[in-house]
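Changelog note: in this version the structure field was regenerated for every chain. One regenerated record is shown below for reference.
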Amino acid sequence: SERKRFYQNVSISQGEGGFEINLDHRKLKTPQAKLFTVPSEALAIAVATEWDSQKDTIKFYTMHLTTLCNTALDNPTQRNKTQLIRAAVKFLETDTVCYRVEEPPALAELQKNEWDPVVAWVEKRYNVTIGSSTSILGPNIPASTKETFVSHLASYNMWALQGIEFVITQLKSLILSMSLIDRHITVEKAVLLSRLEEEYQIRRWGNVEWAHDYDLCELRARTAAGTLFVHLCSESSTVKHKLLQD
């Protein structure tokens, strides 16, 4: 959806509940008419930049950080922290990088070469067993692996968890998402790995140029926004914690 830009200036201010976004002299509200407040100044600046970069019309579908903040504030699905974590970990059962092909051999080799190092890194980083499978049922993920990820994700706040789930949904992979959020791989690499089979087919058969390029740019934009959102939402609590320790 789009609407005509109705404001000249965008600014941020600190209120009781956090940082607010001002469009001229109006305070930004969520779709449920709550005051739009975010937990960190850096996130407020990033959201304000989204609003400021809109030209004659406001293209809401390009404003991924604003959308993620609205979701965190309004919580339209009314899920609690435990439900968010369980939904994220459930992706392990259908994780893109765990499902392998046997044919054609070239694609099977590509999956092994590109995906195995990421899976191995995550297994070492979190001290878990994941594995892969060519069966339609996928690999048998141990319960201890799932519980490890549940415990790890519990260390994030509700805002960051909304971002993590958003990234996982884009990449269809918890493994790629955690590698990205842990800064082991870049956004470009994560997106490429999530689309490995598609990229293989394109290299082999060619592509519908504009459609492929558009999808790729969109996926990168959403994945980058989600990752930035997680980092900016984790930042303030980490800094506060460090200051309290000092």
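Spot check on this record: Residues 81 and 158 are 6 Å apart (CA to CA). Residues 81-244 form a domain with the ATP12-like fold fold (CATH 1.10.3580.10).
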